[in-house]
Amino acid sequence: MRVIKYVFQPHGDDRGQLVALEEFKDIPFSIRRVYYMYDTVSNVTRGFHAHKSLQQILVCIHGSCKIRLDNGKEKKVIPLEKPYEGLYVPNAMWREMFEFSPDAVLMVLASDLYDESDYIRNYDEFLEHVKKCGKITALDGE
Ligand code: T46
């Protein structure tokens, strides 16, 4: 599986823009949860974890931020600055979110409900997990 940055279809007309996201059509999984972060304090970095099985799509619907993805072998920084772009983040991928603009709203579509036991919050444990499950997701998406 590859890391993918989706470009969603905006339905624009003379009133403005509208983006619609449907599961299994625009999003490759069933959407079981939506959450979003805003008013992020400047210079703060969030995340610092991976998930054992959760898949997510990150959409910066207002403002901008950057996402650092780490598959255990290589790291890549992906800017999110368009409300019609979504970054697919699979399981077994360490993520950090940073450089939030003051007006940034980062919305996340998640494949499952909140479950703290799905988190790997220790980096060495993450590397162990990647070794054990043998999953290295290529980081050649844009
Ligand atoms: C992820 C990145 C992109 C809930 O109660 N329910 C929820 O659905 C979520 C996501 C969080 N929380 C609580 C748990 C913590 O007390 O909200 C608090 C902040 O969560 P956390 O420190 O995990 O936030 P981030 O920004 O570090 O990470 C979040 C997601 O947790 C994570 O799954 O991939 O955004």
Tags for this entry?
8% helix, RmlC-like_jellyroll, mainly beta, 5-stranded antiparallel β-sheet, WxcM-like domain-containing protein, 142 residues, binds dTDP-4-keto-6-deoxyglucose, Jelly Rolls, RmlC_Cupin_sf, single chain, QdtA_cupin_dom, 36% strand
Structure report:
By secondary structure, this protein is mostly beta strands. It has one domain: Jelly Rolls (Sandwich), CATH 2.60.120.10. It is 8% helix and 36% strand. The chain has one helix spanning 123-133; strands spanning 5-7, 33-37, 46-51, 56-62, 65-70, 75-80, 85-89, 94-98, 105-110, 119-120. The strands form 2 sheets. The protein has a 5-stranded antiparallel beta sheet with strand order 1-7-4-9-2, with no helix packed on it. β5 (65-70) and β6 (75-80) form a beta hairpin. The protein is globular and about 55 Å long. The mean pLDDT is 94. Bound molecules: dTDP-4-keto-6-deoxyglucose. Residues 33, 35, 37, 46-47, 56, 95, 97, 108, 114 line the site of dTDP-4-keto-6-deoxyglucose. DTDP-4-keto-6-deoxyglucose is lined by residues 33, 35, 37, 46-47, 56, 95, 97, 108, 114.
